[in-house]
Specification:
It contains four helices and four strands; from the N terminus they run αβββααβα. The N and C termini lie far apart (34 Å). With 129 residues, the protein is α+β, with helices and mostly antiparallel strands. A four-stranded mixed sheet has the order 1-2-4-3, with helices on both faces.
């Protein structure tokens, strides 16, 4: 498996778990949409990143919803080292097209949304443009 993240998988301490937190992020946060997923982020005073992943019933039955959440968690893995120190709550909402997309497409979509939300700095290849 990928050991690049050095144990920074989306563990319980990095997760949004309370309904009140989800509601606050949805109300106060800014959303960024992509055909595969939606990112909603809200900055907060406490340090540290928290992520909530949502897969609604439009995606299908439990097997499809759980698969979508696993794919999003896996795609988020490589971005955690650069995101972990930011004081932000993030909600990722899976859209039905996510289930037909390849993992590379999902990762690119997530990276695009994180950059649009100014949570990731431009890569060194983008500086020349």
């Amino acid at each position: 498996m990928l050991s690049v993240c050095a144990g920074l998988e989306v563990q319980r301490r990095f997760r949004l778990t309370r309904a009140a937190d989800f509601q606050r992020v949805r109300q106060e946060g800014k959303s960024y949409a992509h055909p595969l997923l939606v990112l909603i982020c809200s900055f907060r005073p406490e340090p540290g990143l928290r992520v909530g992943i949502v897969a609604g019933r439009k995606l299908g039955k439990a097997v499809q919803r759980n698969r979508a959440k696993r794919l999003l968690r896996a795609a988020l893995q490589s971005f955690l080292p650069s995101l972990a120190q930011q004081p932000v709550d993030i909600i990722l909402i899976a859209r039905p097209a996510l289930l037909q997309a390849s993992f590379v497409e999902i990762r690119q979509a997530l990276e695009s949304l994180l950059r649009r939300a100014h949570l990731l700095l431009p890569s060194s290849g983008d500086e020349n443009s």
